[in-house]
Every structure is written in C-alpha cells, then in structure tokens.
C-alpha cells in the first residue's frame, strides 16, 4: 500500500518515515512539505541519507488521492484544519496527528487552542482513535484523529480506574512531564538549548490544550468532572511521564488494583504493566510504541498514584498513527511496530 | 569566627566550602572526613585548587570543641546521629544537614528512614530551622537541624495558604522533581550517568522520608492531614521544583492569592514571588539561596497550583545552613549568601 | 541459527539482544551471566519486558557448544581471555567483543591493558574483523575478535588516505570523543551522573588501549608510524566522533579527496560519506550501524581533517559483531541491521 | 566607578551583570539594549529579580560618556564595530567583547568574519588584552578588545611552549570543544534543544574566525606558522576545552615541561596548572575566572598534549573583561572575580 507523509520535515514526520520505511505493508511513496518543496529530505535530515532519498513535493490533493492509499498529516495545529478537508474531499484516507480534529465541540478548540477551528462537518467525521480504549471505532473509517501525546499517557493510565468506577469524581490530578521534542522545531528564545539544558520548567499552567481532549475521552469512559493537569519540560529529547493522582472510592488493596490493571491490559501488545512495587522510567520505552505503567496505592491518604510513560514521538504520535493505520486496514495491529526500546 | 565542616567531601560539604570561603564572618578553619582523613581536599575536588588548600582531618570532638565556634555536619543520615551527640556533649554549636534530628517522633524516623534513630534526648534539643517560617526559634540555640531539600521547597510553597487557612484538609498533593545531586555520591548501577541521562524517573513512590518532615511542620502551621507526595529524578545536576496542588476552601481570586503570597514574603530576602502569570524555572535560582514561586488559581477545578523552586544544594542544604548560622549568631541573615544565580 | 549472548547484562549485551531479537536468521536461544545467573534479564533491564523473557544461565562451555551455533562474548577485557578458550576448545563459533584478542603481540596487551594477556595460541587464531577493511578474512573462521569502538571510527576514517598513500608518516593525530555508554556499568565516583553531566573530560591521555590496536591495523594498511590519539568523555550516552588530522603528501584538492572517499566506500552499505562541506554529527547515526564521514582539506596548513562518527554500541560494538557474524555464515551482510537512526 | 553594559540581554551581558553586581569598585549604573529598550531586564532574565531592577535604555553615546566611567560592549560582531567608534569619539572608556577589533589586519576580518570590518583607525587604537600574556599594554588605555573564548584557552595553553621556543613550527593542532552558550541566543533550527542534546557536532571546520586571532598573538609570541584549529559543540551550556597538540623540538621530559608551565604561571591568580598526570575537566572552572591546565609529553610520538579549560562566559568573556577593566584602572586584578567554581 502506498503511503505519503505531509509535514515530513517535522519530528513527527521523521518518526513516521523511520517506522514506514520498514513496514511490511505500507511503503513510503511521497513526502510533502508546504515550505520546503523541491528540497531533498536528506538536506534537512542527514540521518536519512541512503534511506529516504526523496524530494519534498508540493501538496496537491487531487494527485495525492490518485496516487496514495493513505496520507499521514504530520502538520501542526492550525495547518491540518486547512489541508485535511481538501484531502478528504478528494477521497483520501487521512490520519491526522495534529490537535485540529480531536475536540468534538469546536468552541472548546477555540478556547484552548486560541485558533480558528476546523469546520464542524469535518470534525464530526473524524474518529478519535486510541486503540486500547476504542479499537472498534477505528476499523473502516477514512479519517482518523490521532490522540495527543499527553492525552495518550494520561488516558491509558486512568482508563482501568475509570472504567471500573474505582475513583471519586473531582479527584484526578495529572502532573505530566515531557521531553523537549514535543515542542517540535519552533525556534525561539524559549526553545534554544541554553534555555532548556540543566533546567526544569512548567508551562501552560492549568491551560494545556490537551486538557479538554482528556476530559472528553474520560467522559465517554464514565468520569464526568474536570481534571487538574499540568505540563513540564524535562531536559531530555524524548519521553513523557504522567504521574496521576486520584482518590479511591473505597478501601481497595494494592493487589486488587494490580489485578484490575493486569486484566484490563492483558491482551494489549503495547501496554506493559510493571510488577508490584516497580515503576517505569521514560527511557524504558525510548524509540518504541510501548506504554509502560506502575501503580501505587497509598493507604495513608486513600489515593492511588499511577505512573504512565511513553515515547512522545512513538505511542504519543507516529507509532500510534501507524497502529491506527494498521487497524483501519485490517492489518496485524503491531505490523511495523516491533521496535525494541533503545537502551541505554 | 572559626567554622568547620564534617563530611567535606560530599556535595553538601563542597557547597558549604564555596559559601564559607567568602563569608564575611565565618572562616573555614578545618575540614573533616570519616573515610578520607589525611588526604588533601583538592585531591577529591580539583575545582578547589588554590582555594581550599586543606587536609582532611580526623573527627575528634574534644579538639573540635576547643578550636571551632561552629560545626556544620554534612554527613549522611545514619552518620550524623552518631557524631552530633559527641560534639554536643563537648559543647559545640552544631548545624546538622542530615535527616537524623528532624523528626520529633523517633518512631517516625525508624518507619521512614529504616534506620536506627538518634537518641530521643538529642532529638528533643534540636531546633528544626526553616527561617522564613520559624525564625524566632533559631536564635540562641546550639543545635540546629537543617530542613530537607524537598521539605524546604514544599513548605515555603504551602505556608501562606496554610497559615491563612485557605485550603481544605486532605487536599494537598505535591509532585516534586529534583536534579541528581540530591542523591549525593553514592555509586551504584542506579546513579551512573548512563542510567539517568535522557531519562526521567520516579522513586520512593509514596514513601519519601521527607513526607513526615513536611507533615510535622504543616501541622504546626495548622494543616493536620497527611499529604500525598512524590519525588522524581530529572536529568540535571541541580534544582528542585515542587508542583503543589490544593483545593481552595472558597472562591478566592488569583489577585487575592497573589496578595497573600506577596504580603507573606514581603520582607524575606530569599523569597521571590513571580508576577501574575509567570512561573519560575529551576535554573533561575541555580547556585543561589533563593526560593522562587509562582501561583495559579484554576477556577475550573477550584484548586490552586503553587510552583516552588530552589537549588537543592543551596536553599535546600548548605545555603540554608549558613542562613541559619547567621541567625543563630545574630549576624546579618544574608551575610555570605549574596550569590546571584548562574545563568545560563 | 541459535545464538547466545554471554555478558547479556552489560550494555553491549543489551544491544546484541536488541539486534538479534529481530534478526531474520539468528535467534536468541540463551543468555548468560557470570554474576547474575538465575535472575530474569527483565529484572536488570525492564525495557526488555515481554520481549526477551529469559533467565540468565550459568556459563557451561560444553552445553553451550551442544546447543548454540554462535556465541557472542560481551564480557569485559580480562574476562573474555578466560572464557573464550574454554568455548573454542568445545568447538564453539565465537565472536568476542572485548579487547582481549585484538593485539597480536601479547606484550602490547600487557603494556596497554595492564592485565594478564590471553594465551598466545588463541590470540593467534583470532581474526580481527573490520569488514570494510578485511572482509575476506572473516568468512569461514570460527573465532572473531571484534574491533574497539574508537578503533572502528578512526580506522574507517583513515583507511582511504592510508591505502592511497596520501598522507605523511608521523603526521596522524586523532582527537576522539565518546558518549559515556562506552564506560559500561562500572559504578564509581567517576561514573556517577553528577560528575559527568554538564562536564567535558579528557581521560587516559596518550594512553588509551585502542592506540596499539589502531596502529596494528594501520600498519597492515601501509602506515607504519605511531599515532597521537586522545579520548574524551562527552555528556551524552551514545556516539563517538573521531576528528582526525594528517598532513597530505602533496597538493591534493578537496574534490580529489572527496572522490577518493566516495570510490573507496562506494559499495559499502554502512558507510555514508557526506557531500562536500557537510560534516556528520553523532546523532545522525544514533542506534544504527552506520559510520558517517566528512572530509576537509585545509590548504593553509596542508592538512586534511576527517570527521568520522559511529554509535559506539552499534558499529562500535554489537552492530559490527552481528555484521561479522553475517559475513562469517555467508548471510546477507546487512541482515538484521537495517536500523534507521533514531532522530531526534 | 560607574559602569554600563551595552547588550545586557545577551549571555555575555548577563554574566557581566553577575560579576559587576558584587564588584567592590564598579557599580552597574545603566544597562542598554538596541532592541529591547524600555523593557525591564527582569522581564528577559527573571533570575535577576530583586537584583538588577533596571530598565534597558537606549544607546546614547553622549549621555553615556557623561554618565559612565566605563562601558562594556557585549554586543555581537558586526554591531560593536558601529557602536564602539561612537562611544570612543565621545571619550568613553570601552571594553569590547566582540571580535570586531581583534584583528589588526581588517582584510583578515573580512575574510574570516564575512562582514564589513570596523574602520582601520579604530582597530589601530584597540588594545588586544590577554592579561597573562600582555598585561603591560593594558594599563592606561581607553579601548580594549577582549579576546575570544577559544583564543583565550588556546593561547594560555600554548604560551609557555612558544615563549620558551620548545615546539616546532607548523606543528600546532588545536582541537577545541565548547558548551553551547558560546552560540548566544540566536534562535534557529540549529540551536534548538532537540538538535543539540545527546549530540556532538563539529562546526566551521578549518574556518573558525578565532584562527587568525590566535595566529596573530602566537606570532607576537614567536610562533610564525598557521595552525590547524577545529571547534566542536558539546551538549552542555558552559565550558571550553582546548586539546592542543604540538611537536617538541628536542627530547624534553615531562618534569621539565611541568616546570616550564609552573614557572610561567607561578604568579598568575587565575591560572592553575594541575599536578603531573592530572588533567582538568571543564566543570572544575564552572562559573569562575580560572584557566586550568594539564600537560602530557608523549615520548612515543615526540609530541606534547596540553589540555586547557575555561568557562567561556567568564575567562572566555565577561570575567576576562572585568579583569582587564581592573588592570586598566589600576585596581587589584582579581577584584570582584573571586568566584569559586560551582561544583557539581
């Protein structure tokens, strides 16, 4: 099957190329860029020398529809909202990695993204696809909205508790930390090496745009109240950890909680629940599509702490996008995603 | 005044030397080590070449009492408990940087440190000294127990809310992050560079020994319930950020909270409350004795988020120890502590 | 074919597992450790959860010979010299990643490694295998000595110049820099995070044990004089850059040198020579088996500068070992080594 | 004495403020910026909160001459060449930290900087000031050109060898490495965190603009040939190491060389020559004005290796500028520069 990547010069785009290049079914047919067309992708990314010898093409929706079986949109929020409809109208199958089609209420989008939302009709058609939580909705669609990185780590960490009705409403607090690659390639005083190295920062305090996305999905799982969520920048490139706090409704033991998680994720190829008393570090999923978890019941406070880690560019972006593409086309869900974490 | 540092080869010890070497009143008279006596300190710390040309001495309490006006104990927990009493019996003035004399209930010490506690009589004599919160207890004592690094960042962040009675019991959650220097010089598989670089870890989940210390002080400030607290390792050397969450008792505006903090810390030379909407990063206090803060009221959830940062080796250890020594001897509280953050 | 890894808990061992686990021909049959036998490898390396579910076995040469087609010895210098002979006597095919069998003159080994050398008879049988330079010697052997990481980067960078007789004797200076993973898992004051982060160090000044190894191979390529070589530690985990300086014998232009390199490495799947004026950074080979190069002729001084980068755990250790194993068994040389650099 | 800093929002400017703020004689009177005038410096640098409460002023040469005793120009190359003459015409005493007045031959400037040079008349008046090498020229001048960071580390490392005539012409190779703060605050794809973290890069291969500056000074010391020099970016913020190679003219022992260095720098307060066999790491001078060195004679090759480290923002920029200012005004040379390295 022929695949294309729009926004191939971004980090999400580069990660898609890394995955697709060795995918058993998808084949990289074309790469696109709105700003660097005509340039070789190797000029931007020397690490792809001899591997992806392609020239960045102009985005021509009709030609794309003709040529490709699937298009990955690795463009930033505010850009996908313009390109996706053009592609969909031509009949393309589209997986969008941006935040533009995740929020069903376009007013929420305006409030949190401070940008013009995508047209409601296309938002309505997009399937928000987090396979472990709504796999059945993904098959046979043509337009997938890929979840955000923080949302993925948080929702996978919370889902067993919420689905089993174990935690109190209004009790969820998520303290999330991300490597800097989540910020992409925007060059500003705030993203240069000197400002971030040997430094730890909080940003978008109580205002991160993944909050409504998480709440929307939590609501569908049965948790109806707003959450407290904060995001921090860690001086490293890849990796997200969400440290999740919630109040347990009743006395439930560590062993019972462990069992809930193990049962919930028993058949999931990309979820690894650590043994009792062990908690994952971000490097243990580096470069892979895994989401690893550890859970601790604190009897002193009646709260549970869930630690959930992913590689933000893999399970948090490109890896999950390919996982969704696999499901959409009825392929083996893990096809092309057998990456072992690079350690150390 | 003649000062000595016991445990001078540790990082807390090195930081004490950096401060004391340019202190207007204290003068480094002797440095001590239980394991490296007879060795020049420069052999361990080449950065002190030509600056601290001393040889590490054996710990002889009687001789120390004779010679020194003040002794800083920069030894680890479990060691201070043995050395401090010997020094105190000889009449020394002691500032202990370890955790051995912080918890008034020695059963708590055993539970959280999993070590044999110091004798109750000496624990009783120790003054837990966090100047901004209990300055008046510090003067004219002979034995100071210096607060822990996480405790300092957390307590300074929470104090205005607790003292003003603004937050609900049982609502405090502290998600704390530290640079690796807090782990000292213990060499193990878990502290080598390769295991920590480009990695983010949680450790001692719901079990950090600073929890009872924080709760003990919070209780004296008027907050009586257990807190949820977790600690993480950031791939950087220095710096702590405590991200603190609590539920507000009533509708209180961002402006009112800002005023509470500004009033509370108005005359404090080492506390810097950021302007509304601005939050500190750890590097903004690097190498200095400042504790910087930012506060955010989240009207969606009724919670407040307080961000508190310190340099763990300064305000979190050596800097605060010298601040306490200044108070104890009636010196200018900021004497020898005018370090400007090293930035970038 | 059944493969085993001895020393599987080291970083070289972990990297071998990452490669072999997806190798089309080799299959990980057993993993061995001299110190942790009986323990699950996942207990040491949680990142291998659900991937390498094996228990570390005791090293029993006879059983290993019975069971395995090939054994990778990822043990440190001084250990391989004892284990390899036992395996070879039993008829095993062995690829040794240590330095114990690289130096043909065992007196050199003693001088540079300051350890007891391996028996001369086994050293004589070992084939030093750097495929791009002596591929033909590798086939049909049973005992391969895998080159050192610095040696690989340096020799591949120098080979075209030396083979073409372009540089003057006595003119080679190699200034090499490595990420910390080259130091393995030895835990000491000098390898802890705090001592290496935000720091740049030189070590083993003019005394690195890879010097005689490089000189031995250079001699076989036609360069007979000693080289100046120094090694530095970079605060990062993976990657080596060798910056190589040599005096050109005659006026030779940048274009001519470029052609020499392009011709020399034209058919090599793992060597990527950059375009004129472009030089590789270490991250451009991260996690892959590539060696990337850039060359600059300095007409002011009559010297050439060659920049050669590898991932020290891949082309500098495990990747090259598998490449050698592929050659040895007549497999496709790139089998199981199609790793795209992980970027960023 | 009243001091001003032009270009105070740059990193060199920030470091000047850190030094001057506690200087016994100089007092920060005004700070200037060409682009951010009217803004508080704290808005750009929150770490200066409560310390440097100034507003950035417009650059008015006449007013500056009226008001200030000394002006530090911490502006980039290409900017100083325009501002310095305006200040000098008004009679200001100026210390310029840029490269604009270092090269006596303005054609060299054009060749290496690829920018329009400063007027020859002003270049002629500038005194290139590296105190340890030409202290006597510095007193009683009004216009100082402060050396480059790489130049400082390299020249101090080479000077004893060159002055004593110990090394052969045409033999010097300098392999230099710098933390990223040397690149300042320019925001581009190449300076963002993600491109530099966990990466090691060479740049300006055989083309760094400090080459002619080093050669100009070496020439005045007695070494007349061009040098080979390369610069690399280390994933850290501060610190430079120059690894220097040269061929010894005759058999000279390690002990003799050590004596040469110890004698040469015996009375220098900021130079620390390590004991035989010990080599400095960059962190050992972090935040201080020291230049630390180690020397190794390699009898195998007849070469000497000199390792020279500085903090690029201190001895490589702001620290040296203040040292020069001290000399210029006849103050104690170390005044305001007693910074102990921040370690770890």
Automatic annotation (TrEMBL), chains A, B, C, D:
It is an enzyme of class 1 (oxidoreductase). Keywords: Amino-acid biosynthesis, Arginine biosynthesis, Cytoplasm, NADP, Oxidoreductase. It catalyses: N-acetyl-L-glutamate 5-semialdehyde + phosphate + NADP(+) = N-acetyl-L-glutamyl 5-phosphate + NADPH + H(+). The keyword Electron transport does not apply. The active site is at 149. Pathway: Amino-acid biosynthesis; L-arginine biosynthesis; N(2)-acetyl-L-ornithine from L-glutamate: step 3/4. Catalyzes the NADPH-dependent reduction of N-acetyl-5-glutamyl phosphate to yield N-acetyl-L-glutamate 5-semialdehyde. It holds the Pfam family Semialdhyde_dhC_1. It is found in: Cytoplasm. One of its GO terms (cellular component) is cytoplasm. InterPro entries: AGPR, AGPR_AS, AGPR_dimerisation_dom, AGPR_type-1, NAD(P)-bd_dom_sf, Semialdehyde_DH_NAD-bd. Belongs to the NAGSA dehydrogenase family. Type 1 subfamily. One of its GO terms (molecular function) is NADP+ binding. It comes from the Bacteria. The keyword Metal-binding does not apply. This is N-acetyl-gamma-glutamyl-phosphate reductase. GO terms for biological process: L-arginine biosynthetic process.
């Amino acid at each position: 099957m022929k695949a294309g990547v729009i926004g191939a010069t971004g980090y999400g785009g580069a990660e898609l190329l890394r995955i697709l290049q060795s995918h058993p079914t998808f084949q990289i047919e074309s790469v696109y860029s709105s700003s660097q067309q005509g340039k070789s992708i190797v000029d931007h990314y020397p690490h792809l020398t001899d591997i992806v010898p392609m020239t960045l093409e102009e985005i021509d929706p009709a030609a794309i529809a003709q040529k490709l079986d699937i298009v990955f949109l690795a463009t930033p929020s505010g850009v996908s909202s313009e390109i996706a409809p053009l592609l969909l109208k031509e009949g393309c199958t589209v997986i969008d990695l941006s935040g533009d089609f995740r929020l069903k209420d376009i007013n929420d989008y305006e409030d949190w993204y401070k940008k013009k939302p995508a047209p409601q009709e296309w938002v309505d058609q997009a399937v928000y696809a987090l396979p472990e939580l709504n796999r059945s909705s993904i098959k046979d669609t043509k337009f997938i909205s890929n979840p955000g990185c923080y949302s993925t780590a948080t929702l996978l960490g919370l889902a067993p508790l919420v689905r089993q009705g174990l935690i109190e409403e209004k009790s969820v607090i998520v303290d999330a930390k991300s490597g800097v690659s989540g910020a992409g390639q925007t060059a500003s005083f705030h993203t240069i090496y000197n400002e971030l190295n040997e430094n730890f920062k909080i940003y978008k305090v109580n205002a991160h745009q993944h909050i409504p996305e998480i709440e929307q999905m939590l609501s569908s799982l049965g948790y109806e109240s707003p959450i407290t969520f904060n995001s921090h920048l860690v001086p490293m490139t890849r990796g997200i950890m969400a440290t999740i706090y919630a109040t347990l409704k009743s006395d439930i033991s560590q062993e019972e909680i462990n069992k809930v998680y193990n049962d919930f994720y028993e058949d999931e190829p990309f979820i690894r629940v650590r043994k009792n008393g062990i908690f994952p570090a971000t490097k243990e999923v580096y470069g892979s599509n895994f989401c690893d978890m550890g859970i601790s019941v604190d009897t002193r406070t009646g709260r549970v702490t869930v630690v959930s880690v992913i590689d933000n560019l893999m399970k948090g972006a490109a890896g999950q996008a390919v996982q969704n593409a696999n499901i959409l086309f009825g392929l083996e869900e893990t096809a092309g995603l057998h990456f072992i974490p690079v350690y150390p």
